[in-house]
Design brief:
Distance between the termini: 29 Å
Keywords: Acetylation, ATP-binding, Ligase, Magnesium, Metal-binding, Nucleotide-binding
Protein name: Acetyl-coenzyme A synthetase
Shape: globular
Bound molecules: 5'-O-[(S)-ethoxy(hydroxy)phosphoryl]adenosine
Cofactor: Mg(2+)
Number of strands: 29
Organism: Alicyclobacillus fastidiosus
Structural class: alpha/beta
Helix content: 25-40%
InterPro entries: Ac_CoA_lig (IPR011904), ACAS_N (IPR032387), AMP-bd_C (IPR025110), AMP-bd_C_sf (IPR045851), AMP-binding_CS (IPR020845), AMP-dep_synth/lig_dom (IPR000873), ANL_N_sf (IPR042099)
Length: about 650
C-alpha cells in the first residue's frame, strides 16, 4: 500500500496536546477512565449495558453471535427504532421538549416537540401503510433537508419498512441505480429543494429516474411551490399533504422488530463502479448511535445539538436522526447553504437557538477560515461547550482555528473517525477523559478494538504506517451489502480473516493515538464525500468522444481532495474547452455535482505498467507536481514526460 510519507512526517511533528478542563471533566457523562479497560476486558458486557439504555419490547437473550464475518447482536431482543426515538420521549417530562428545531434556507422555521413529532410520524406511518408499504419493503427517500425527511425515515422504521435515503445532490441516474438495486416500492420526494437561493428540481430528476423502475407510488412534498415546475403523474404521484390530511390521527402501533431486522440501507462508493447498499440492523445500530451520543458527544437534556451534515449521508442518519433523537435531545436541523444569505449563517443559527454542541466537517472549517474570523466574531457563540469534526483527517491549522475562533479556546474538540459501514464514531476522544492532539482522532472508543497492521496482519507498532483494522465485531457494524454478501466478505473481511478492513491507512504514535492517513483504495474523499474513481471513470467513458479515462484524487486546500481526470479521446476527436465542459457535465449528470472533475487533462496515452495496469500513483504525482518516483515498470516512459508538460499547460 502507499502511505504518504511526506504527510506522515508532518503529522509526527504535531506535539500540541489539550487536556479537558476540570470543569468539563466533572460534568461529563463519561469521566472515569477505567471504562476503557473494563470495556476491553469484557466488550459484550459493556455493550449489553449500553443496549439497556434503549427500550426493548422483549429483552435479548444473547449479546453476540459471531460467525465471521457475520455478527448478530442482542439476539432474541425486540424493539422499534422509531419508538425509541420518538414515542418513549413523547410521554413524561420530554413530551413538550423540542425534538427538532428546523430552520429553512429562506428564513422560515418550524419547531416539533416530541409529542408533535410523534403525531407526524404516526400519520406518515398510517399514510405509507395505506399505500401498501409493509414490514421489510424498501422505501427510497429523495428529499431536501426538511422535517418531512426525518419524519419519513421514522415512519418507515415504525412500520418496519427499510428506508434508503438518497442525497438530494445525486443525479437522476444515480437515483435510478439506487431505486433499482433496492427494488423500492415507494419513493418519497419533493417538488424541489432550496440551495443558495436556487431550486434543485428533485421531482423532475425523480421522474427521469422512475421510468425504468418498479416504484408503485411517489409521494411528493411541496416545498418550493410552482417555481419548481413539478408535474404530477395521475395514479402514481400523490402529494404528501393530501395523504397526511386524510391519514388517521390515531396512534400507530410500532412494529416489534427483531434486533437483527434491517433498519435501513445507505449507498456508498467503493472500488467498483457500482455503489454498495450498506445494510444496518435495528438493535445494534441504534445501540451504537445512542452510546456515542452519550460518550463522545456528552449529550445532556439541556443541550441544543447542531450537526451540519445532510441526512443523505451517514453522518446525518446517525447524528441528526437516530443518535440524538434516541437520546431525547433537541436537534437543530438546517436546510440550506452555509453562505446563504451571508457567510455567517451557521453562527447566526448557533446564536439564535443557543446551540451547545456543534458538529461539522474539516472542509467546512477550511472554508470558514478562508471567509475570515469576522463572521463568527459577529455572533454570540458563548453557549457552545463542545465541538466535533468528521469526514476526513483535520489538518492541525484548521483544528487550531476551530479551537480559537469557534470554541473560544474553551470547548473540547472531538475528531471522530468512522464510516458509513461502522454506523457510529469508532475512533474519537471521550471529551471528559482523553487529551486531544490537533489532527488525531485519538483512540478507539470503549468497546472497540483497533490496530494498525502490515500486509501480513502483524501490528506495525509506532514506527510505520499500515492498514487500519478493527479486530472485534461491534454492535453498529454493517451486516452485509444489500444483495451481495460476497462483496461484503471480500471487501471488508477478505484480506485478514475475521478482522474488519476499513480501507484507510493509519499510523500510531507513541501514546497509541491513531493518525489517519487517508484511503488506501480507489476512493476519493472530496469535501468529506466518498467518490469511487471507477464511478467517475465509467461516467467519462460513457461519453462518445472518450476512449479511456483514469481518475485520481489530488490534494486540495479546501476540499481535502479534488478530482483530476486523465482522458484519452477517440480517433479524430478534437480536444478543446467545449469538450472539457461537456465531459464535466456528463459526470454531473451521471453521478451528481459533487463528483464534477476539477480538471480534465487530455493525453494521447495513459501511463501503464507492462501488465497494462494504469499507474495511478504516477498520475497523482503528476497532478500534485511531485518529483516522480520509480517509473521503471512503465511500459512507455515517454508518456510521463508528455503528461507532465500537458498538466502544466492545463494549469
Ligand atoms: C474518512 C463518514 C480521518 C475515512 C462518517 C473513512 C476520516 C471515510 C474521518 C468514511 C476522520 C471519516 N479522520 N478520516 N475523523 N472521518 N474519514 O463512509 O477515509 O462517508 O474511511 O463516512 O471518511 O466516509 P463515509
Amino acid at each position: 500500500m502507499s502511505v504518504d510519507s511526506e504527510k506522515l512526517s508532518t503529522l509526527l511533528h504535531e506535539t500540541r496536546s489539550f487536556s479537558p478542563s476540570d470543569e468539563f471533566r466533572a460534568q461529563a457523562n463519561f469521566n472515569d477512565e477505567t471504562i476503557y479497560e473494563r470495556a476491553a476486558n469484557d466488550p459484550e458486557a459493556y455493550w449489553a449495558l449500553q443496549a439497556e439504555q434503549l427500550t426493548w419490547f422483549q429483552p435479548f437473550e444473547n449479546v453476540l453471535n459471531w460467525e465471521p464475518p457475520h455478527a448478530q447482536w442482542f439476539v432474541g431482543g425486540k424493539l422499534n427504532a422509531a419508538y425509541n426515538c420518538v414515542d418513549r420521549h413523547a410521554v413524561g417530562p420530554r413530551k413538550n421538549k423540542a425534538a427538532i428545531i428546523w430552520e429553512g434556507e429562506p428564513g422560515d422555521s418550524r419547531v416539533l416537540t416530541y409529542d408533535m413529532l410523534r403525531r407526524e410520524v404516526d400519520k406518515a406511518a398510517h399514510a405509507l401503510k395505506g399505500l401498501g408499504v409493509q414490514k421489510g419493503d424498501r422505501v427510497t427517500i429523495y428529499l431536501p433537508m426538511i422535517p418531512e425527511l426525518p419524519i419519513s425515515m421514522l415512519a418507515c422504521a415504525k412500520i418496519g419498512a427499510i428506508h434508503s435515503v438518497v442525497f438530494g445532490g445525486f443525479s437522476s441516474k444515480s437515483l435510478q441505480q439506487r431505486l433499482e438495486d433496492a427494488d423500492a416500492k415507494v419513493l418519497i420526494t419533493a417538488d424541489g429543494g432550496w440551495r443558495r437561493g436556487g431550486v434543485i428540481p428533485l421531482k423532475a430528476n425523480a421522474d427521469e429516474a422512475l421510468s425504468a423502475t418498479k416504484v408503485e407510488n411517489v409521494v411528493v412534498v411541496r416545498r418550493v411551490g410552482d417555481s419548481a415546475g413539478a408535474t404530477m403523474q395521475e395514479g402514481r404521484d400523490v402529494y404528501w399533504h393530501d395523504l397526511m390530511a386524510k391519514a388517521p390521527t390515531t396512534p400507530f402501533e410500532a412494529e416489534p422488530m427483531d434486533s437483527e431486522d434491517i433498519l435501513y440501507l445507505l449507498y456508498t462508493s467503493g472500488t467498483t463502479g457500482k455503489p454498495k447498499g450498506i445494510v444496518h440492523s435495528t438493535g445494534g445500530y441504534l445501540t451504537g448511535a445512542n452510546t456515542s451520543m452519550r460518550s463522545v458527544f456528552d449529550i445532556k437534556d439541556e443541550d441544543v445539538w447542531f450537526c451540519t451534515a445532510d441526512i443523505g449521508w451517514v453522518t446525518g442518519h446517525t447524528y441528526i436522526v437516530y443518535g440524538p433523537l434516541s437520546a431525547g435531545a433537541t436537534v437543530v436541523m438546517y436546510e440550506g447553504g452555509p453562505d446563504y444569505p451571508g457567510r455567517d449563517r451557521f453562527w447566526e443559527i448557533v446564536e439564535k437557538y443557543g446551540v451547545t454542541i456543534f458538529y461539522t466537517a474539516p472542509t467546512s472549517i477550511r472554508t470558514f477560515m478562508k471567509w475570515g474570523p469576522e463572521h463568527p466574531a459577529a455572533h454570540d457563540l458563548s453557549t457552545l461547550r463542545l465541538l466535533g469534526t468528521v469526514g476526513e483527517p483535520i489538518n492541525p491549522e484548521a483544528w487550531m482555528w476551530f479551537h480559537q475562533h469557534i470554541g473560544n479556546e474553551r470547548c473540547p474538540i472531538v475528531d471522530t473517525w468512522w464510516q458509513t459501514e461502522t454506523g457510529c464514531a469508532m475512533i474519537a476522544p471521550l471529551p471528559g477523559i482523553v487529551p486531544t492532539k490537533p489532527g488525531s482522532a485519538t483512540r478507539a472508543v470503549p468497546g472497540i478494538d483497533v490496530d494498525v497492521v502490515d500486509e501480513h496482519g502483524q501490528s506495525v507498532g509506532f514506527e510505520n504506517g499500515g492498514y487500519l483494522v478493527i479486530k472485534k465485531p461491534w454492535p453498529s457494524m454493517l451486516r452485509t451489502v444489500w444483495g451481495d454478501d460476497e462483496r461484503f466478505r471480500n471487501t471488508y473481511f477478505g484480506k485478514f480473516e475475521g478482522i474488519y478492513l476499513p480501507g484507510d491507512g493509519a499510523h500510531l504514535d507513541e501514546d497509541g493515538y491513531v493518525w489517519i492517513l487517508g484511503r488506501i483504495d480507489d476512493v476519493i474523499n472530496v469535501s468529506g464525500h466518498r467518490i469511487g474513481t471507477a464511478e467517475v471513470e465509467s461516467a467519462l467513458v460513457s461519453h462518445s468522444s472518450v476512449a479511456e479515462a483514469a481518475v485520481i484524487g489530488r490534494s486540495h486546500d479546501i476540499k481535502g481532495q479534488a478530482i483530476t481526470a486523465f482522458v484519452t479521446v477517440r480517433e479524430g476527436i478534437e480536444t478543446n474547452q467545449e469538450l472539457v465542459a461537456a465531459l464535466k457535465q456528463t459526470v454531473v449528470e451521471k453521478i451528481g455535482a459533487m463528483a464534477r472533475p476539477e480538471e480534465i487533462i487530455f493525453t494521447a496515452e495513459l501511463p501503464k505498467t507492462r501488465s497494462a495496469k494504469i499507474m495511478r500513483r504516477l498520475l497523482r504525482d503528476i497532478a500534485e507536481g511531485r518529483v516522480l518516483g520509480d517509473t521503471t515498470t512503465l511500459a512507455d516512459p515517454s508518456v510521463v514526460e508528455s503528461l507532465k508538460s500537458q498538466y502544466k499547460e492545463a494549469d
